[in-house]
Amino acid sequence: MQLDLASVLIQWAAGGLLFLWVTTRHRVLGIGYGWLLRSTYAAMAAGGVVAGVVATDAGVAATVRDVAGAAMAGAALLALVVSVVKKGNGLEGPGSFPPALDLLAPAVGAIAVVAAAVATGGNDLLAISRLVVGAAFIGVITDAMLLGHWYLVQPGLSREPIKELVRWSLWITPVEIVLMLVPTGMVQVLNGTIDDGWGGLLGWMWVFFAFTTLGLLIASRAALKEPYYSAVMATTGLLYLAILTAFGTDVMARAVFAP
To answer: What pTM value is reported for the model?
Structure first.
């Protein structure tokens, strides 16, 4: 299973856009939050397409990845344009932005992620499972951290949106860890069957990253139970760290698996 920039950016954008919809469907966040995330992930998706085009891989899966990745970027930009046009109509009621439009980009992005997994080689079913779950894993933690910052812009916002993303993170993380252990996986790195080039050090670093991510998310959930406004900022800080360890859990593992 190869590790390449195209698949990382495509999965990150697809996961982030999916959990953008999870949040926007409640119609409680200021419209600027959607602008920030749609533009950010559209740029990531476009970067993934560029990385895929200039890469040396070829074939049907790589082509589908690049075309679907471009469509994902376009769908995110379409939702962005519509939200800008409808900004004066409020969050609810006639003429307001339809949150269902935010589903189009991750739906197309799912095709790009599956194609990217096939293009990386190895066992297709395992590669697809890892990349799809990895997209959700990285995307939801990133969105939760960005949402934490949005409370500075919209301080009266209920904590329910960020609690929801933290809950999703806690459900997805164990699945991510288990999939990375499925043979051929991190178990083989830890027992020496796969040489990581560092005497097994990268395997133990992965264990640290995986369980630290889980611990940071549990701490984030606990922080959100505190009544003080500073609890949201504390949660945001914990999620900053969780993004770093999440990349260690997902991307570093794929780097070790790469031949």
So the answer is: 0.93
